[in-house]
Specification:
By secondary structure, this protein is α/β, with parallel strands linked by helices. The chain has a domain at 36-235: Alpha-Beta Barrel (TIM Barrel). Helices cover 26% and strands 21% of the residues. It contains eight helices and 16 strands. Helix 6 runs parallel beside helix 7 (211-224). It starts with 27 loop residues before the first strand and ends with a strand. The structure holds zinc ion. The site of zinc ion (ZN) has 5 residues, from loops.
Length: 310
Amino acid sequence: MPPVDSGLPTPPGAANVAKPSGAAGGFKVIDWAGFSGAVTYTFDDVNSSQIQNYETLKGLGVPFTFYVWTGRAEANDPVWQRALDDGHELANHTMSHMSGDSGSDTDAATRWLREKFDLTPWTMAAPNGASVYTGIARTRFMINRGVSNNLISPNDSTDPFTLPTFIPPTGASTAVMDEQVTSARTAKKWRTFCIHGFTGGSDSAYQPIPLQAFVDHVKHVKDFGDVWIGTMENVGAYWRGQKAVTSGTTMMSGGETTYNWQLPDHFPPGKYVRVTVTGGTLKQNGVPLPWNPRGYYEVALDPKSVTLSP
Ligand SMILES: [Zn+2]
């Protein structure tokens, strides 16, 4: 069988961890796919300073999430197809960017993204942080990003439909942004950022920041080597997937233990979590999972079940 690509990034550490050979047990999802913490950078409103500086953003070599206000002319810029092709996430920021919606304006943006890019948006960002989108997102998305800052922990009770985020102040320095990630890394948690644009843009982006300050900041985070820089879809699916597996049920039969879980509604297919055990053989659909010498097994979430046998 060819190896399956979990889509998860390679964590730090050497690939020299021996396969656990103790008693079967100790099943546990590892936090943040094996990284010390996680950060997600999101960009709102398809502002011109994002478009003008796309090549610089792309040059950082890490995936970003762009929340597309689909009713704006800038949403038609060819840069967004390139962003998608480059591995970034395009997701829903509604069609008209209103503080009130029955759901129809949100659905119009989803349709637009489907038709233009042939993609399903799994996450959204609430325009103006309006609270009406918490309920709208619950029946449509895996995550809705809010506008209040907080750290997010593995298996915590943070509301995925008002997910916290840090909005850098106007003119934010590299140090101000670094501190947000350093504190997340120290606490082994996830921080999301919400950025509207860069200083000098022509369309009055909210609280613009200097491009160079952001570039230097991302380089610092990359230099840590142990912080997962991922899209809202990917880090969010890991966070929600871990909680789903951890809060699932356990069945023992004939010496085998089967772990079952339910996935949240509107959850993207093809996602994985990384797990450790003290020993035994993990199988999904009857097929033994390969041990990764960086210290984990990769478990597909879609089967909603994994079995550990001695
Ligand atoms: Zn916005």
